[in-house]
Design goal:
The protein is an alpha/beta fold and about 350 residues long. The chain is built from 13 helices and 13 strands. It has 2 domains: about 35 residues; about 290 residues, Spore Coat Polysaccharide Biosynthesis Protein SpsA, Chain A, CATH 3.90.550. β4, α7 and β5 form a beta-alpha-beta unit. The termini are far apart. It binds 2-acetamido-2-deoxy-beta-D-glucopyranose (3 copies). The site of one 2-acetamido-2-deoxy-beta-D-glucopyranose has 4 residues, from loops.
């Protein structure tokens, strides 16, 4: 119809065509407005992703893989060099100071929850131990929980380390490595987590890396995993075609010298991602080649791209949430993970969800 109008309009336009054109323009406008409001709010963190939807996936993946900063294989026996800015000191052999080498043999988990947390944050660990970290059995599936720590950086680090030792003896759930625990070292924490899993927990089916300030619905997570792929599987809140932040004052700044493409590879947001236990070994291998940037989730995305393994979208877009979801028993019974405004919310929401009675 529009074409008919184009032809006609070469002669003289009529009002029917004009109104048709107005209609088309209005529809396009409506779709754009819908994209603007729905996509960023419902599906993911960033509006950039919506823009990126216009790019074909294959093209983006190939371009990104071609421009990853790779290095020839280095072994962890090689001398450690201080990293350039925006890269972290990895691969490097970090030593375990606190370990639970028999945890997985003993508990035989289907799923193991790995929670990075700063050494001084005992409160967050206790909150988790008393809430979602206490859910050790879902149906016939065992769930284990471990906390990941680096070295305390604060002044009173000796006292802190003493306390950690006691906490570890009491709860048997701390894994500590000898790198400084800091925001810029999170990629190291993630990599030593993968190393730990590949050595001590190969027989588990899935692992989830989940931040300590998250609300987690363990039942819903196990339910999703019962019908999930068993290999090459990573899911969570997946960002595709997210824009690289080039503003030096941004928390996630990456200069072009470190990563040239304007878009990140597809990756699962660090607040909580789930993966099958065949992946740690593969990702560790990839990390010997792809230079580790300090943004841990983006770095895993780079490794996945290098391996040619896609990140899987969750079965439902509302399962993982980057913005705190307003509490409502029905809503929370159907989601897997969400950020919350406070540790108190995290605890109260979990308690309310355990109360007997129908959810919805
Ligand atoms: C994994 O399972 C195999 C076979 O069941 C067993 O021989 C091995 O010791 C297990 N490994 C761990 C770390 O539990
Ligand atoms: C990261 O850890 C390494 C090893 O402990 C340390 O040399 C480096 O200074 C740390 N980086 C930051 C930014 O804390
Ligand atoms: C990415 O590039 C590396 C070499 O740079 C290659 O070994 C790997 O197979 C590539 N992956 C994909 C998915 O093209």
């Amino acid at each position: 119809m529009v074409e008919d109008c184009e032809k006609q309009s070469k002669g003289q336009s009529n009002s029917r065509c004009r109104s048709l054109r107005l209609y088309v323009i209005f529809t396009v406008f409506l779709v754009l407005v819908l994209c603007y409001y729905i996509i960023p709010n419902e599906m993911s963190a960033s509006w950039a992703i919506a823009v990126g939807l216009l790019l074909p996936e294959k093209f983006a993946t190939q371009t990104i893989n071609a421009s990853l900063n790779t290095v020839s294989v280095v072994t962890s026996a090689e001398r450690w060099k201080p990293p350039e800015p925006y890269y972290v000191a990895y691969p490097y052999k970090y030593n375990l100071l606190l370990n639970e080498p028999e945890k997985c043999q003993r508990e035989k988990p289907f799923l193991i929850l790995m929670v990075p947390v700063s050494p001084s944050n005992t409160a967050a660990r206790d909150a988790i131990r008393s809430t979602w970290g206490s859910e050790r059995l879902v149906g016939d599936k065992t769930v284990s929980v471990l906390f990941l720590l680096g070295l305390p950086t604060s002044e009173n680090r000796d006292t802190l380390q003493q306390n950690l030792l006691q906490e570890s003896e009491k709860n048997h759930d701390l894994i500590q490595n000898d790198f400084w625990d800091s925001y810029y070292n999170l990629t190291i924490k993630t990599m030593v987590m993968l190393e730990w899993l590949s050595v001590y927990c190969q027989n588990a089916s899935y692992a989830m890396k989940i931040d300590s300030d998250m609300f987690l619905n363990v039942k819903k997570l196990v339910e999703m995993l019962q019908s999930a792929p068993k290999q090459n599987y990573m899911t969570g809140l997946v960002a595709r075609h997210a824009m690289v932040l080039r503003d030096p004052s941004s928390k996630w700044y990456l200069p072009k010298t470190v990563y040239k493409p304007p878009l990140y590879p597809p990756y699962a947001l660090g607040l909580g991602y789930v993966f099958s236990l065949d992946l740690p070994e593969k990702l560790i291998k990839a990390a010997q080649r792809v230079k580790p940037v300090y943004i841990e989730d983006v770095f895993l995305g780079m490794c996945m791209t290098h391996l040619g393994i896609g990140v899987t979208d969750p079965p439902d877009g509302s399962l993982f949430n980057v913005f705190p979801v307003t509490y409502n028993r029905c809503r929370y019974s159907k989601l897997i993970a969400t950020t919350t405004h406070s540790m108190n919310d995290q605890v109260e929401f979990w308690k309310d969800l355990q109360r007997p009675g129908p959810y919805c």
